[in-house]
Amino acid sequence: MSYLYLLIAVIAEVIATSALNASKGFTQVAPTVITCMGYLIAIYFLSLTMKSIPMGITYALWSGAGIVFISTIGWVVFKQHLDAAAMIGLAFILFGIVIINVFSKSTHV
Questions:
Q1: Its principal location (predicted)?
Q2: Angle of helix 29-49 versus helix 55-76 axis, rounded to 10
Q3: DSSP 53
Q4: Rounded to an integer, what distance in angstroms lies between the CA atom of residue 85 and that of residue 71?
Q5: C-alpha distances in angstroms, 67 versus 36, 42, 49?
Q6: pLDDT tens digits for 23-59?
Q7: pTM score of the predicted model
Q8: Which domain holds residue 101?
Q9: Cα–Cα distance, 44 to 54 (Å, whole number)
Q10: Helix, strand or coil for residue 60?
Q11: What would the pLDDT profile of 61-104 be if each residue is shown by its tens digit?
Q12: Which of 2, 10, 63, 74 has most Cβ atoms within 10 angstroms of its Cβ?
């Protein structure tokens, strides 16, 4: 169940961050509301995840996955440029997430 909570937290954070970009500095009402609600949902489900996965590991997985997803959305939806160094850095983050999940005993709940 912890990984489902973590997935919900990541998705909510990615939606919130995408809406934050669309809010244009909180000048657009709908994206601003989506941003606030998304972050509230993300933090709530992140707190549920931390009941069974250590805080540092939870945060590493949440932030790492969020970075990769929001960078991808920025690239695809918002047409933001990702150069080779950015792509390599994102690949390292993905490898880090895989290493933690496959080899770390800290994530076994």
A1: membrane
A2: 150
A3: S
A4: 13
A5: 18, 14, 18
A6: 999 999 999 999 999 999 999 999 999 999 999 999 9
A7: 0.88
A8: 2-107
A9: 16
A10: helix
A11: 999 999 999 999 999 998 999 999 999 999 999 999 999 888 88
A12: 10
CA-CA distance, 29 to 18, in Å (whole number)? 14
CA 102 to chain centre: 19
Three-class secondary structure of residue 85 per DSSP? helix
How big is the chain, counted in residues?
A: 109
What is the count of structural domains for the chain?
Answer: 1
Give the sign of the dihedral formed by CA 10, CA 12, CA 13, CA 14. positive
Q: What is the pLDDT at residue 109?
A: 58
Both structure tokens of 30: 């709908």
Residue with tokens 């169940």: 1
Q: Rounded distance, CA 95 to CA 87, Å?
A: 12
Nearest to 45 by CA among 100, 2, 101: 2
CA pair distance 32, 25, nearest whole angstrom: 8
Structure token digits, residue 32 = 């601003």
